[in-house]
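pinging the channel bc i need a second pair of eyes. not urgent but kinda urgent?? the chain im working w is below, pasted from the shared doc
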Amino acid sequence: MSNINFNPFPVLCTKRLTLRGLKMTDDQAVLDYQSDKNNFKYVDMPIYHTIDDARKYIAKMNTGVTSNKWIIWAIADKQTDKAIGTISLWNISQDQTKAELGYGLYPGYRGKGYMSEALQKVLEYGFKVMKLEVIESYTNVQNKKSIELLVRNKFTKVSNFTETHTYSGEPMEMFIYAIKPELHGSYNV
C-alpha cells in the first residue's frame, strides 16, 4: 500500500455538499455544536466553552491532516459554504489498511440525507484513493440514528465493547460496525 498523503487537501463534492478542510471561519459553528452536550449526547467528546476552544480544535485537526495522521472534512452547503457538520477517517492502522469513521451533523441539518450523501463520498475516497480494506465505525448502542445510518449504508455489526476511558468518567456501551470495499459498491453522489 502506498503512503497516505492528504496534501493537497482532497476536496470532495456531491450534489448538495462540498467536503472541504476546516477553516478558522468555521469556529462559531464548531462552538455552537460543541458547547451543548445535547448535540452529541451519545459521543464522548469534551464540551467547549469559548471560541478559543473551537479554534484550538480546528488547528489540532488541521495539524493532524497536514501530518497525514487523519483526514477530517467540514461538511459544507455547496451554495453557501456554511459548515453543517464534519466527517473524518482517523485511527488509520500502521499498515494503512483500516481506518475509523467519525461524523456529526449540526442541529437543523439532521434527517435530510446530508450525512448519507457525505458518507458515500468518503467511503469512495477511503476505498478507491486510500486503498483501505476496511472502514470501521464505533457507535454508542443507544444511538439509533447512527446505527440506522450505518446499516442503510451497508455496514455490518462486527463486535461490541465497553468504553471505560471517557470524558465523563461514565462507561459507554459501544457497537463496532464495519464495511469492506466489495460491500460499498459505487454511488452516484
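so The chain has a mean pLDDT of 93. and The first strand starts at residue 12 and ends at 13. — does that match what u expected or am i reading it wrong
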